[in-house]
Design goal:
Length: about 60
Amino acid sequence: MILQRKEQVKISRYIVGVIGGGEDVLPENYDLAYSLGGLIAKEGWVLLNGGKGGLSSKK
């Protein structure tokens, strides 16, 4: 059985990269980074971050 698409759907999303310094992060920057991530998500954008240590390992 061969399926054919009658129309092609194009989905575009913004990818926002947020890269920080890693380990020696000031405590007040944790809440700022968390809020920024929330704003990016609220817009429906994709958040691209390091994900190893630093801010992304907190909360």
